[in-house]
Write a structure and sequence with these properties.
Elements (H helix, E strand, L loop, with lengths): L7 E4 L3 H11 L5 E5 L4 E4 L2 H6 L3 H6 L6 E3 H6 L3 E4 L9 H14 L7 E4 L7 H13 L8 E4 L12 E5 L5 H7 L8 E5 H26 L4 H7 L10 H5 L2 H9 L6 H30 L7 E6 L10 H13 L5 E5 L11 E6 L2 H9 L6 E5 L6 E4 L3
Parallel strand pairs: 1-2, 1-5, 5-6, 6-7, 8-9, 10-11, 10-12, 12-13
Antiparallel strand pairs: 2-3, 3-4, 7-8, 13-14
Length: 387
């Protein structure tokens, strides 16, 4: 079967899923993207993919497009990409993902290739393969195919893509994936090796970052003034710290017993919780420093991130940060894009949660006096006066 005659289904109306579907559609291959919340599939034709550059704009006009039942789209597909939007926290996330995956495999047919893109811990893919064989009666690697292609939460420009497989990639799938990663950098290995490589990538990423967040909690202004000129700690934000939280949790969920690896993963997850507590405590200290009353203070959390990405950790941490701040400040708002400052009788404290958010705030000419707190390891504080 030539690649032009292949049909593709992408299960999950996530940013990652839409990127894959748009990429394949541009090759002139029939592709359907499935809204996993409604269970309906939408044919993503090349002109539609060009019209809607992002899944956000696509969702806004979704009601104007043609639908078909998702089981029909999966049953007709030669390749099924699993890219769900995950909005459950651990440990509920595991069952949530499993339920969605079972919705997919109950409709796949013989000779279908399933590409699982959700980051998985050790042994999870073997569990998936066993489930596929049990539910379909087919043999993975012989008359149905399974590939593990974890989509990274870390910038894809830093790492090559990984595909784990029980068989060789057929030429059709190779053509579908061609150009998806920068410079076509995709490493093909066995499933177990893909799990190991991806887990090493995540833990290496946190191994460089977590110690900075942990140690800087104990520093004072003397350290800050001495170190800031030579170190790039200010380039790390809570946004970076949370980016791989889902990946850490999926690794931890696959481990049993107590081992150095288990403690290592738990320690990195604890760093996120510790920093969230540290951030809110420091804001409480600032309120006391300026003698600000809760009733006369407004806190704004400025955190711009993609609400449609597969992982929902940033949204979860944002909600928890908002809840914690409301213990100290009655008036708390979220802003996920550039916003205008406005005159207010209340003192404004803005928590910038990413580098982009800080730059937007800093470059936006405010018309009121505000205090900006950079959610970085050393929590630098700025005061901007009216202009």
């Amino acid at each position: 079967m030539g690649v032009d005659s292949s049909k593709v289904a992408v299960y999950g109306l996530s940013t990652e899923g839409y990127k894959i579907a748009s990429h394949i559609s541009a090759k002139g291959i029939p592709v359907s993207i499935i809204d996993d919340s409604s269970g309906m599939a939408i044919a993503l034709k090349p002109d539609i993919a060009k019209t809607y550059s992002s899944v956000t704009s696509f969702i806004q006009d979704e009601t104007l497009l043609d639908f078909e039942p998702f089981d029909v789209a999966i049953g007709n597909a030669s390749y099924v990409f699993f890219t769900p939007r995950i909005r459950k926290s651990w440990p509920d996330a595991k069952n949530h993902i499993g339920s969605k995956f079972q919705d997919v495999i109950k409709h796949v047919n013989k000779e279908t290739s399933i590409i699982y893109t959700v980051p998985a811990g050790f042994g999870i893919n073997n569990e998936n393969i066993t489930l596929i064989e049990h539910r379909t009666g087919l043999n993975v690697g012989k008359n149905i195919y399974y590939h593990y292609m974890p989509l990274s939460s870390i910038s894809s420009t830093l790492f090559e893509g990984i595909v784990g497989t029980r068989s060789e990639l057929d030429s059709n799938l190779t053509s579908l994936l061609s150009g998806l990663e920068p410079a076509n950098r995709i490493k093909v290995v066995d499933v177990e090796s893909a799990e190991y490589l991806y887990s090493i990538r995540i833990l290496r990423h946190y191994g460089l970052m977590s110690p900075i967040f942990e140690i800087c909690k104990f520093t004072d202004h003397t350290f800050q003034s001495q170190i800031m000129e030579n170190e790039s700690f200010g380039e790390l934000y809570i946004d970076d710290l949370v980016s791989g939280l889902f990946d850490l949790n999926t690794i931890l969920a696959s481990l049993t017993g107590i081992s150095p690896l288990t403690l290592l993963v738990k320690g990195n997850i604890a760093t996120v919780e510790n920093y969230l507590k540290h951030l809110t405590e420091q804001i409480k200290i600032i309120l006391k420093k300026y003698e600000l009353k809760a009733s006369k203070t407004k806190a704004i959390i400025s955190w711009t991130f993609d609400p449609n990405e597969m992982r929902g950790d940033k949204l979860d941490i944002l909600s928890r940060l908002e809840s914690r701040l409301k213990d100290y400040v009655g008036d708390v708002e979220r802003h996920d894009s550039l916003f205008d400052f406005y005159s207010s009788e209340k003192k404004m404290i803005v928590v910038s949660c990413s580098k982009d958010d800080f730059e937007k705030i800093n470059n936006n000419n405010p018309n009121s006096e505000i205090i900006i707190i950079k959610a970085t390891p050393i929590l630098r504080q700025f005061s901007i006066q009216s202009k």
